UniProtKB/TrEMBL annotation:
Organism: Megasphaera intestinihominis
Gene Ontology MF annotations: DNA helicase activity; hydrolase activity
Keyword DNA-binding: yes
Function: The RuvA-RuvB-RuvC complex processes Holliday junction (HJ) DNA during genetic recombination and DNA repair, while the RuvA-RuvB complex plays an important role in the rescue of blocked DNA replication forks via replication fork reversal (RFR). RuvA specifically binds to HJ cruciform DNA, conferring on it an open structure. The RuvB hexamer acts as an ATP-dependent pump, pulling dsDNA into and through the RuvAB complex. HJ branch migration allows RuvC to scan DNA until it finds its consensus sequence, where it cleaves and resolves the cruciform DNA.
Entry remark concerning the domains of this protein: Has three domains with a flexible linker between the domains II and III and assumes an 'L' shape. Domain III is highly mobile and contacts RuvB.
Helix-hairpin-helix DNA-binding motif class domain location: 72-91, 107-126
Record key words, sorted: Cytoplasm, DNA damage, DNA recombination, DNA repair, DNA-binding, Hydrolase
Gene designation per UniProt: ruvA
SMART domains in the cross-refs: HhH1
Name of the protein in its database record: Holliday junction branch migration complex subunit RuvA
Family: Belongs to the RuvA family.
Subcellular location, record wording: Cytoplasm
InterPro entries: DNA_helicase_Holl-junc_RuvA_I (IPR013849), Hlx-hairpin-Hlx_DNA-bd_motif (IPR003583), NA-bd_OB-fold (IPR012340), RuvA (IPR000085), RuvA_2-like (IPR010994), RuvA_C (IPR011114), RuvA_C_sf (IPR036267)
Length: 202
């Protein structure tokens, strides 16, 4: 198995890239978070997983060990193949996915591509004790990604970005998050309180 590829990015597509390793171009499928870090003409290293089927051999690549580890956990869940796992990682951030699993947010998980209710329930059941904690603001809240509304900053902006990546609308979550902001000092706290309030209101 190929553990990683290190070479120059020659092409970037919607869900994959070509990485030139000593004159050989490897098509590597990657989540949006990884593709966003790549630049054509620059060297990169991607942690890789090789999927071998009767009709195809496919490489999946990840910019960080964390993304790779989550991918490996996901494909270990019954009903989640590499394509679905890649779609899940592309739909949000590693921490927004972790939070959804820790909060047992079945509805949020089913908004991710290829995930039905039964699969979402299996993901929660099998991964909630394996995926690790959600990073606090100090531990790298900027990695939560997403696009917060203009004019917002700090933990409120990061919380809004994480929730919108789970499928919530900005109009739905912003007032709720703002109402809990005073009692929270980290993104993780505000996310939990906001999700709790959103859940009780439905």
């Amino acid at each position: 198995m190929i553990g990683y590829l290190k070479g120059v990015i020659s092409h970037i597509f919607v869900n994959s890239c070509f990485i030139d390793v000593h004159g050989v171009g490897y098509r590597t499928y990657a989540p949006a978070s990884t593709l966003d870090t790549l630049c054509v003409g620059q060297e990169a290293m991607l942690y890789t997983y090789m999927s071998v089927r009767e009709d195809a051999i496919v490489l999946y690549g990840f910019a960080t060990q964390d993304e790779y580890d989550l991918f490996m956990l996901l494909i270990g869940v019954n009903g989640v193949g590499p394509k679905v796992a890649l779609g899940i990682l592309s739909a949000g951030t590693a921490d927004s996915f972790r939070l959804a699993v820790h909060q047992k947010d079945i509805k949020g998980l089913t908004k991710m591509p290829g995930i039905g209710k039964k699969t979402a329930e299996r993901i929660v059941l099998e991964l909630q004790d394996k995926i690790g904690p959600v990073a606090s603001e100090d531990a790298g809240a900027a990695d939560l990604g997403g696009s917060a509304a203009p004019g917002l900053s700090g933990i409120l902006a990061e919380t809004l970005a994480a929730l919108t990546s789970l499928g919530y609308s900005e109009q739905e979550v912003l007032p709720v998050a703002e109402s809990h902001l005073a009692g929270c000092t980290t993104v993780e706290q505000l996310l939990k309180e906001t999700l709790k309030a959103l859940g009780s209101g439905r």
